[in-house]
Amino acid sequence: MSSAGDARSAAVAASGWGYPVRFFQAGNPAFWVYLYLVGTGAFLYYGLVKDSTKYATGTILALTLCALFTLPFVWFITRRDRWEREPAKLAVLGFLWGGLAASWVMAAPANGAILSIYAKLFGVDFASSWGPALTAPITEETSKYAGLILLFLLARNHVRSAYDGLLLGAFTGLGFQIFENFSYMTNAVVNNFGASQVQDVMTVFVMRGVTGIVSHWLFSAIAGTGLGYFIGAKDRSFGHRFAVAAGFMLLAMVAHGSMDAVVAVGPLGLVVSWVVGIAGLVFAFRFANRRQRTWMGALLADEVASGTITKDELGVLEGPRKTKKQYLESIRKDKGKQAARNAGFVLEAQTDLAATIAATDDPSGPEANAARAEVARLRALPA
Amino acid sequence: MTDWELERRTPPEHRFLGLDRRYIAPLALVVFVWLLWAVVAPAVNEAISRDEIPAGTTAELPNDVTFSPAAGWVYTAPSFPGVQSLELFKGGATFTIRSGRFEGTSAELLKRVKDADDDKVSFEGPVRFVPLAGGVRGVAQSTYRADSEGAYFAFAHDGVGVTVVVDGPTGAVDTPTEDIAAMIASIRFGTPKAGS
């Protein structure tokens, strides 16, 4: 095998992109733990929201708004999944863990108990102002993290990079956020005896929608990046990987805690949460990106030699996102808008080619040839 | 056979009771977190005794509703500012009070709450009137479950509704009925809205 072929196979093995994901694994204890805790969470969640089903208007409106709220986040997260399209099955498993197990089986009882302990030891005033900030970041982030560990155990061949951790963390946090939002909306309806269902749901939706932009999906994405790195960077020492994972977790907790400190410190808490959260996500994304880009080069090296991909295109595919932006902008200036659009399609198809080669580890197989034909078709589109 | 197919089968040296022993350490971490939050934290909370509510306490609920918890009762959860419902208990009896927006009569509120409740509660006897200070006329109806009995109370006044659910073990001789009656009588609605 050529050295490029060796590098490609190493990239396939290291990335895990080529491995399928199976949920049912009777011999894997992680499967049973996941099933038990998510099942328990579903049971508890049903008990929590069942009273609201008597109020059809509020329930339907809350469901619809939650679904609409979810879509842009799914779009954003999958758009960030530039290279591999994180398997939908894993994303859904993460979403359900966050929404059912992490929230209601683990974090909810812990939050209630710890807030009550604070109230007993330090008084209700302290517990109501500082309690959330000193509780939720620890209980909720670790509960979601536990799910990411389970996802790794369920798909050990697939979850093996900081990038996997970032994306799956985002989906896990998103599940937590959406199920929590739904329960808040329906609780508001029940608390007002169903007298003002639309108003109650809309009030909670607007409030949670604004604060939800920087919320669980983002915190878990940051924390997950560290876990993914810990799992995947086997070439680094245990201490180094542990420190990186702990650092990302701390960053997530600070962003989360700042948001929950809003009762104690006022709007400053939200500002800190947004600054730390967004900066943390950008940092996590760049950190996770570096390793993925090297795999892209190894997977497509032979394609440059055969002329399927130009050196410039590989440079874009390997480069940071701004390289792609600059590349397409220069085409737009030289050849026009449509040519730039087509060049974007070609890059997309080349990404698919890389994913196909990784999935089959067979650059001469029919799937890879079909992906190459698609690149050729898009390249031939009239500008 | 590919690496993946090999990995689907647990290698013999890693098997323990048919399971993959390599998963045990990370799985133990997951189970530890679960037990810590779902069992240990609540157990510690339960081990720390709750303070009994002192005489003369006034509790506030949203929509300017107040009431006076009876001395010796205990909150089941901290009475944080802004919570829409409070639950107290004493001697096996629980007293749950909730306030919210409601445009309608006390009888309509009681019907709404009964309709929304689960099917494990049965109502018996007539709906009776319960007067409060300030001319508020509430309603109440007795309830029973498989092993407990109690009553639902509903008060609607000036766009605000208050419900109280009382429940205690069937046949208990020490049910603090006087305390419950006093707490019901202590419910006060806030200043009427301008123009009403």
Residue-averaged pLDDT of chain B = 84
Rounded Rg of chain B: 25 Å
The CATH architecture category of the largest domain in chain B equals 3-Layer(aba) Sandwich
Cα distance spanning the termini of chain A = 39 Å
Could you tell me the number of beta strands of chain A? 0
Overall tally of structural domains of chain A: 2
Strand content of chain B: 25-35%
Biggest sheet layout of chain B: 7 strands, antiparallel
Instruction: Please work out how many helical segments of chain A DSSP would assign.
Output: 15
- What is the radius of gyration of chain A computed over CA atoms, rounded to a whole number of angstroms? 23 Å
What does this structure look like?
The complex is a heterodimer of chains A (383) and B (196). With 383 residues, chain A is an all-alpha fold. Chain A has helices at 3-15, 29-49, 56-80, 88-122, 124-154, 162-191, 197-211, 216-232, 238-260, 262-265, 267-306, 311-318, 321-335, 337-360, 366-379. The longest helix of chain A has 40 residues, at 267-306. Chain A folds into 2 domains: 21-294, no CATH class; 307-379, no CATH class. Chain A contains 15 helices and no strands. The radius of gyration of chain A is 23 Å and the shape is globular. With 196 residues, chain B is an alpha+beta fold. Chain B folds into 2 domains: 3-47, no CATH class; 59-185, Mog1/PsbP, alpha/beta/alpha sandwich (Protein Transport Mog1p, Chain A). Chain B is 26% helix and 33% strand. Chain B contains 4 helices and 11 strands, in the order αββαβββββαββββα. Chain B has a 7-stranded antiparallel sheet, with helices on both faces. A two-stranded antiparallel ribbon of chain B has the order 1-2. A two-stranded antiparallel sheet of chain B has the order 3-4. In chain B, β8 and β9 form a beta hairpin. The chains are: A mainly alpha (383), B alpha+beta (196).
